[in-house]
Design goal:
Strand content: under 5%
Radius of gyration: 21 Å
Largest sheet: 2 strands, antiparallel
Order of helices and strands: HHHHHEEHHHH
Strand order of the largest sheet: 1-2
Number of strands: 2
Number of helices: 9
Length: 191
Amino acid sequence: VRLGGTVFAVTWGRGVGLYQGYMPDQPIKFSHKIHAGENQIDCQYCHSGVTKSKSAWIPSANVCMNCHKYINKGPNYGETEIAKIYDAVGWDPETQSYTGKPKPIEWVRIHNNPDHAYFNHAQHVVVGNQECQTCHGPIQEMEVVYQYSNLGMGWCIDCHRQEKVKVLGHDNKEGLTVEDMGGLDCARCHY
């Protein structure tokens, strides 16, 4: 009985903080399928922090306004969801002017790492030359975004053991992996 309890506790414990498939309702229905898929807007246009920060950054509604100042009707939700962007930035589409009364959008975070784990988007995107889809899956096909990968430690370790290092000016004929370059050192991700 004790062994069974231990196996159960370890199995359960490994799943704590893993939310693969998590798909919360958002305050504004936003289709990555339309934006990143059909319209082929580069992820970095909206998530500009991905190349310079730990976080990819949730875009300001002002980024949305770069297009939606002129596009006020969408193919899936009509004017309803775009009107929520207008409310957020304080935009009056009738007068084509700002009201000075913005309201923040309270987005629900989808991809979470535990507090004791460190992940840096810039390191993986700029240095590691990874595409967003490596971790986030076929984001350009998602009408509603969900957590595609489990983002657990084993998942990261498997990637670091398999991923060949891309070094500028070096062809890596040896097939060095991230693991070979110290990518499994505990202190790199845990503090």
